[in-house]
Amino acid sequence: ARRNVLITGCSSGIGLALAVKMAKDEQKRFKVYATMRNLAKKEPLEEAVGRRLGRTLEIKQLDVCDEQSIKTCVNSIPDRRIDVLVSNAGMGLIGPIECQTIDEMKTVMDTNFFGLVRLLKEILPDMKKRKSGHIVIISSVMGIQGILFNDVYAASKFAVEGFCESLAIQALKFKLQLSLIEPGPVVTEFERKVFEDGMKMDLSAADEETAEMFTNIYLKNYKQIFQSLGQSAEDVAEHTVKIILAENPPFRHQTNTLYTPMTTLKYADPNGDLPIDIFYKMVFHHDKIFSASLNFIKLLRWRSRKSFDLGKPSQ
Ligand code: NAD
Questions:
Q1: Mutational test site, ligand 1, from 91, 156, 226, max ligand atoms within 8 Å of CB
Q2: 311 located within any domain
Q3: Residue 308: pLDDT band by 50, 70, 90 thresholds?
Q4: pTM as predicted
Q5: How far is residue 233's CA from residue 254's CA, in Å, rounded to a whole number?
Q6: In the predicted model, what is the mean pLDDT of residues 118-132?
Q7: CA angle, residues 311, 8, 145, in degrees to nearest 5
Q8: Distance (Å, whole) CA 301 – CA 120
Q9: I want to staple 64 with a disulfide (CB 3.0 to 4.6 A). Which of 41, 115, 161, 262 is the partner?
Q10: Is 16 annotated as belonging to a binding site?
Q11: Which amino acids does the record list as binding NADP(+) (predicted)?
């Protein structure tokens, strides 16, 4: 039977790519409810999905920061039946915390963390009743390992991961599945917006050394990291579909094998110093080594284009 899939944040990036990929599934296994906060931004999705619009895909309004909009959207779906929920909507924030307001930080937490909580408060009870459903969350490698000048963003994704780890135990009892998708850098609007905001940031509240570190080290390397390590939204969408179709979907799935060594550091040292040391050295002492490793990564990437295999999907 066709599975109803609700995806949040479909006006751009990973959400858009995933909605299109699932709507165009040759075996027509999905009915996609592609949602977005602002319906005025629906054109790129409409264009990409073409004649499938109204058949395998419908566009609906949903703001993850607005409980009523979630309720209205879910109520408009036949029998409120959502077999797969993809919590994708999110936003980034970079820079020294001295230069960010508490309100800006709260917006990030409200979108990335409470957005997921609001969705689940509305959708989880139905899934529990039916004893079926798959909750897929677009988290990040920054839900596992923090990175310089991403303090609040990483905190929001850690919150997501902690919440899901707790919920996963209960979900098992109700035969529900929960999967965290953890992309590394992805080249989307997100990356562009975050970078532009970083460039425009008023750094006057930070001391000189911090401001310099942000501008001349972090922002300088930012584009290079996305260019060498970055995946496309379509890549991440492909991984996500494989997880949705897997017979036994994993709780965690990293989409970028080039990034895995970084997150593995965390598990290699129970004291927690290893990843911090390595990131410190990469950022502050080994600019040349850093560039060299990026070049090496480019080479690896070129060689591993043939990508990944998660085994046989279920039919
Ligand atoms: P994106 O900016 O293209 O997409 C994010 C979408 O979320 C946008 O369409 C935006 O309008 C939407 N959104 C924001 N606030 C919303 C709200 N209140 N209600 C509904 N929608 C809202 O960027 P993306 O890279 O496709 O991001 C998708 C997800 O992937 C996010 O959760 C992000 O944290 C995660 N992610 C991104 C990267 C990356 O490098 N781009 C890496 C790891 C994880």
A1: 91
A2: no
A3: very low
A4: 0.92
A5: 14
A6: 98
A7: 65
A8: 37
A9: 115
A10: yes
A11: 9-37, 63, 157
Q: Are the C-beta atoms of 171 and 132 separated by less than 8 Å? A: no
Q: Count other C-beta atoms under 10 Å from residue 175's C-beta.
A: 12
Query: Probe ligand 1: pick from 42, 61, 118, 190, max atoms within 8 Å of CB?
Result: 190
In a domain? residue 251: yes
Among candidate residues 148, 307, 154, the one with its CA nearest the CA of residue 217: 148
- Cα–ligand 1 centroid distance for 158 (angstroms): 16
What CATH number should be reported for the domain holding residue 152?
3.40.50.720
Cβ contacts of residue 72 below 8 Å, gap of 6+?
61
Strand partners, 121: none
Q: Whose CA is nearest to atom 16 of ligand 1?
A: 89
Domain membership of residue 59 as a residue range:
3-303
Assess whether 280 carries a catalytic annotation. Answer: no
Q: How far apart are the first and last CA of the chain?
A: 10
Q: Is 76 domain-assigned? A: yes
Which residue type occupies 3?
R
Q: How many domains does the chain have?
A: 1
Is residue 126 helix, strand or coil? helix
* Helix, coil or strand: residue 20: helix
Closest by CA to 87, choosing from 120, 60, 45, is 120
pLDDT tens-digit series, residues 233-292: 999 999 999 999 999 999 999 999 888 888 888 888 889 998 898 888 888 776 566 666
Question: CB within 8 A of 307, min separation 6: which ones?
Answer: 235
